[in-house]
Amino acid sequence: MKLSTNAAALAWSDGPDQAPACKGVNADLFFPKASSAADGPTAAERTALAFCAGCPVREWCLERDLDECTVTSRIVGVRGGLREADRRALHVRRYGVRAPYRAKADR
Ligand code: SF4
To answer: Where's the 4Fe-4S Wbl-type domain (predicted)?
Structure first.
């Protein structure tokens, strides 16, 4: 199960006991137009980040998102208290740049 949609929309069968702060919130709110790494968060990103700031499962959400995104470029939206640009930078620091997987037939 990936955090490709709002975490609140997911079943929490393998998650922590606490409910996420984004439970019941429109998933679109967590996919704002992304700001660049050099810029601060946009107003829309700050709105999503405010939910994350008070979320009891924030660390779990962030770790899970980073672990499950095998390709840095697929990290989108706000998760785990970080906007897209910050999670991508963290992903690169942690794992290095991951190129998209290409099947042998494509090479
Ligand atoms: S950290 Fe943010 S995106 Fe993750 S579950 Fe909590 S509110 Fe939702």
So the answer is: 21-89
